[in-house]
Amino acid sequence: MRGAEHAHEAEAPYSERKIESLEDLMSHMQAMDQDEGIRIVGDVKGFKSGGFIFIARSASKYCINICDRILDPAKKAYFVGGNDIWFYFETFEEAWAKLTTLIKNPIEAYAY
């Protein structure tokens, strides 16, 4: 994590599963239900700490939301900030092509 090696993501009040690889991310994204989501640490210029990337899926589209990733030094955890932008894609292939230009390497992602 940029800026604070010992910081960790805030504990979520819901169940999360760590996504271990790009292949795992691809599989999960293709199989997502409408009530599932993915949170990814980004490497996006113009967003604090590279931003958070959230992926959701409706019956007909993929949605990618990017927002600032704000470090709370007192809690040593990152939280969602503002500066939101949204992208919508008709197909998995279009969403995947955009997503792969935004994510941090190595991947740090969670399915919820």
Description:
There is one protein chain. With 112 residues, the protein is of the alpha+beta class. The chain has one domain (8-111). 16% of the residues lie in helices and 33% in strands. The chain has helices spanning 22-31, 92-99, and strands spanning 8-9, 17-19, 38-41, 52-57, 62-67, 69-72, 77-80, 85-89, 109-111. A 6-stranded antiparallel sheet has the order 2-9-3-4-5-8. Strands 1-7-6 form a 3-stranded mixed sheet, with no helix packed on it. The longest helix is centred in the first third of the chain and has 10 residues, at 22-31. It is globular and about 40 Å long. The two termini are 20 Å apart.
Question: Topology of this structure?
Answer:
Layout: E1 8-9, E2 17-19, H1 22-31, E3 38-41, E4 52-57, E5 62-67, E6 69-72, E7 77-80, E8 85-89, H2 92-99, E9 109-111
Parallel strand pairs: 1-7
Antiparallel strand pairs: 2-9, 3-4, 3-9, 4-5, 5-8, 6-7
